[in-house]
């Protein structure tokens, strides 16, 4: 059983590439802003020691296959992980290879305008208030609220008093 698992592990492409790797590795990356492909030679990281250096490829780009040992993470048993597996794993931010930035902005603006127009339509279609705003007798219940000073503080009458005093100073 262990020998069978070892054969399955050796058949996986990343492990086979690791066993044949040299000190330098050619990495092909695609530019998201254009369709130009470029290849560059990268020196092997000295801090990795003898750990294999794989091509950075997200596991989200792997096809779904029921033969994976871990179908959720899309990997086989004993498969050597990439150095940056947390960045390239299934739980990393999603890959959006088919959506151009201009199209994404256009879709976002369309959604925002639909949301705002729905809110405006609801605002316009709401009926007026069925009641008149409440009014209180005796200067807005000044005595009941604790006297003229407290009632003025609650209603903002000090603002008017300051405006009158500043108008007298100007004369």
UniProtKB/TrEMBL annotation:
<protein>
    <submittedName>
        <fullName>Uncharacterized protein</fullName>
    </submittedName>
</protein>
<dbReference type="Pfam" id="PF05821">
    <property type="entry name" value="NDUF_B8"/>
</dbReference>
<feature type="compositionally biased region" description="Acidic residues">
    <location>
        <begin position="161"/>
        <end position="171"/>
    </location>
</feature>
<feature type="region of interest" description="Disordered">
    <location>
        <begin position="148"/>
        <end position="171"/>
    </location>
</feature>
<dbReference type="InterPro" id="IPR008699">
    <property type="entry name" value="NDUFB8"/>
</dbReference>
<dbReference type="GO" id="GO:0005739">
    <property type="term" value="C:mitochondrion"/>
</dbReference>
<feature type="region of interest" description="Disordered">
    <location>
        <begin position="46"/>
        <end position="66"/>
    </location>
</feature>
């Amino acid at each position: 059983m262990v020998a069978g698992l070892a054969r399955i592990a050796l058949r996986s492409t990343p492990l086979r590439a690791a066993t044949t790797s040299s000190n330098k590795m050619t990495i092909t990356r695609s530019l998201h802003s254009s369709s130009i492909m470029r290849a560059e030679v990268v020196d092997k990281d000295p801090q990795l020691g003898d750990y294999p250096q794989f091509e950075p490829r997200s596991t989200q780009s792997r096809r779904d296959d029921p033969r994976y040992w871990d179908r959720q993470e899309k990997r086989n048993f004993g498969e050597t992980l990439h150095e940056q597996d947390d960045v390239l794993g299934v739980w990393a931010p999603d890959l959006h290879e088919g959506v151009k930035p201009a199209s994404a902005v256009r879709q976002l603006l369309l959604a925002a305008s639909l949301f705002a127009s729905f809110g405006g339509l609801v605002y316009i279609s709401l009926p007026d208030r069925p009641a008149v705003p409440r009014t209180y007798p005796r200067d807005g219940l000044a005595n009941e609220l604790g006297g003229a000073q407290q009632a003025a503080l609650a209603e903002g009458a000090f603002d008017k008093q300051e405006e009158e005093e500043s108008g007298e100073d100007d004369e």
